[in-house]
Amino acid sequence: MAQTLEQLRAQNAWEVSQKYDKEHVNIAKGLPALIMNSGLMQVLAFCHEKKKKHEEVATDLRIWLVKRISGQPDASDPGFESFMHVLLKAQPQSYQAINAEAFAWLKWLRQMAAARKGGE
Asked: At the top level of its lineage, which domain of life is listed (predicted)?
């Protein structure tokens, strides 16, 4: 029996959050609000500019989104610039779907990362 999309999101969030520390968790917790206030592209640009742990969380988000967009579970990170070009050229309906998927995945990431670091 195939996993549901929610299970796939949860599994991916659990796996990527394995390498996170407390700062990563705080970043993951803040990203949904930042996206709501500024937009997905602006937040990805902000994370890219901040580098280090912000970029690590943004990279995990990009990889997840590319997997969902492409339908290829083994897709890799296309990089910041390539992904931004995809978003810049996306039709409004596609962009909204990507944005919605980002929120859905980040919901899981926030919970899984916090759960993993809760005992520290």
From this structure: Bacteria
Residue type, 118: G
Can you list the domains of the chain with their CATH numbers?
A: 7-12+20-117 (1.10.520.30)
Neighbour count for residue 109 (Cβ, 10 Å): 29
DSSP character string of 69-108? HH--TT-----HHHHHHHHHH--HHHHHHHHHHHHHHHHH
Does residue 84 carry a pLDDT above 80? Answer: yes
- Tens digit of each residue's pLDDT (9 = 90 or more) over 26-37: 999 999 999 999
Residues whose CB is less than 8 angstroms from the CB of residue 29 and which lie 6 or more positions away in sequence, other chains included: 110, 113, 114
Closest alpha carbon to 32 in 119, 100, 95: 100
Q: Which two tokens stand for residue 98?
A: 């990507």
Please tell me the pTM assigned to this model.
0.91
